[in-house]
Amino acid sequence: MQFDLSLEALKTYLPLRTEPADFDSFWAQTLTETRKFDLNACFTPVACGLKLLDVFDVTFCGYGGQPIKGWFLLPRDRNGQLPCVVEYIGYGGGRGKPLDWLLWSNAGYAHFVMDTRGQGSSWQVGDTPDLEPEGSNPQFPGFMTRGILRPETYYYRRLITDAVRAVEAARANPLVDKNRVAVLGNSQGGGVSLAAAGLIPDLSAVLCDVPFLCHYRRATEITDANPYNEISQYCRNHRDKIETVFHTLSYFDGLNFAVRANAPALFSSGLMDEICPPSTVFAAYNYYAGEKQIEVWPYNHHEGGSTFQNIERMKMLSRLWQ
Fold first, then answer.
1. Cβ neighbours of residue 141 under 8 Å, at least 6 residues apart?
2. Rounded distance, CA 120 to CA 129, Å?
3. Binding site residues for substrate, as ranges?
4. What pLDDT digit, counting tens, does each position of 92-116 carry?
5. Could you say which of 62, 160, 186, 289 has the lowest number of CB atoms within 10 Å?
């Protein structure tokens, strides 16, 4: 059922943003520290039986210089540099196998898939451990509360930094047109795409579907579905840490990245989505500073538009990259 605000209310929903005064300096310092490490983007050809595509096993240095895995796929029949889609993965998933990622290279683009550190065991395998020992406070199972007592130690500081470096790694490949790079993802991948858009000023597009990691406090108040419920469970037990938790999360809130993003964006929301409630998605969308549009799927849950949304994504990239 539709449990959130009406669609008319969602279209104008602009909740008060909680933005720390040092938001920009926090991220500038984080990226500066990471860029002290060489990117070391390595693309190793792999044979996987795909006659029409070239596939590469990727390793690059993300947060703290730590190795992050990925896949790079592109059409074998190509002429010159290609536009590139950099994709981030949903919560709990990893990079899987090249056969899991055939859409964008078959559409004629280079496709860079970033593995998600520490994840890749819930629904699709991953190959990148989270090597950072910082966030060692007790946590609710999952990733939402790992290191949550300080923004410096929070898990998503590392993951979002990896995402920025993934764009840099894609652009380092001579087969990629550096001026035509888009970021894309569903759920957690959508939230990470939005963060990347707020931190990288010259992206071609942002394809941000049913985004997670937005408007955290409201999410914990209106849904008990995971992953947001991990935060609720933590706060239920650590009653004295609630404001500390939400202060940390303000550094990673999609609303605060949205006001800094300027690339053309395509969002989506399922009005029956109990995992990423519509008001959390529309809050980010309504604050988004660049050219934007949103596809609304009234009878869908967290799957959103699925293949129907992919059609809209392809239309947008075709228009931008024709």
1. 230
2. 9
3. 91
4. 999 999 999 999 999 999 999 999 9
5. 289
Q: DSSP state, 103?
A: H
Spatial contact of 246 and 154, defined as CB atoms under 8 Å apart: no
- E strand segments, the chain: 42-46, 53-61, 67-75, 82-88, 110-114, 176-186, 205-209, 265-270, 292-297
Check pLDDT > 60 for residue 135: no
Give the Cβ contact number of residue 151 at 10 Å.
21
Residue 70 lies in a domain: yes
CA–CA distances in Å: residue 154 to residues 64, 125, 252, 272, 311: 14, 23, 9, 30, 35
User: Is 2 domain-assigned?
Assistant: no
151 secondary structure, DSSP code: T
CATH code: domain of residue 202: 3.40.50.1820
State whether residue 208 is helix, strand or coil.
strand
Question: Considering all CA atoms of the chain, what is the largest pairwise distance in Å, rounded to the nearest integer?
Answer: 59
Bond prior to 129 in cis (omega within 30° of 0): no
| pLDDT (0 to 100) of residue 131 | 82
Task: Give the structural domain span for 128.
Answer: 7-321
State whether residue 172 is helix, strand or coil. Answer: helix
Domain assignment of residue 189, yes or no: yes
- Paired tokens of 30: 């984080």
pTM across the whole model:
0.96
Residues identified as active-site? 187, 273, 302
* CB contact at 8 A, 110 and 173: yes
Domain assignment of residue 248, yes or no = yes
The total number of structural domains in the chain stands at 1
Pairing of strands 82-88, 67-75: unpaired
Q: Name the burial class of residue 225, with classes exposed (0-12), middle (13-18) and buried (19+) by CB atoms within 10 angstroms of its CB.
A: middle
